[in-house]
Amino acid sequence: MTEPEIMSAIESYVGELYSIWTIGVTDRSDERKQEHAREGKDVSCWHQLDASTKEVARRIEKYFLDKGCKGGGGGRGSFKEVKLWLNHALGLSITSRSATKLCTVA
User: Fold this and answer.
1) Count of domains in the chain?
2) Residue 51's pLDDT is what?
3) In a domain, 49, yes or no
4) What's the whole-model pTM score?
5) Intra-chain end-to-end CA distance of the chain, in Å
6) pLDDT tens digits for range 63-88
7) What CA–CA distance (Å, rounded) separates 49 from 11?
8) Could you tell me which residues come within 8 angstroms of residue 28 by beta carbon, excluding any fewer than 6 positions away?
9) 22, containing H or E segment
10) Predicted confidence band at 99 (pLDDT cuts at 50, 70, 90)?
11) How far is the C-alpha of 53 from the C-alpha of 87, rounded, in Å?
């Protein structure tokens, strides 16, 4: 997905409720998902967005942090594979590899 496509997909999930979402960047999406599950967060609708580079992912992350999403610019690893993830702060985790919305957030 291109940078604008990723941003559009995230906007479609978030709507105007930026403050109840957390966004992050990782290259270890499976481990990150498991961490969220261990923290008691619902990951039944966990998906990822593939970014072309770490820099693209960081720009998108910053854009949504500036809009009010939670997060902190963390993320660690070699970034051979870059994933953006979006986590609903009320416990439902949602991101996507495509623009297809797989879960409905109430």
Assistant:
1) 1
2) 87
3) yes
4) 0.74
5) 26
6) 999 999 888 766 665 665 567 776 66
7) 13
8) 77
9) strand 21-26
10) very low
11) 21
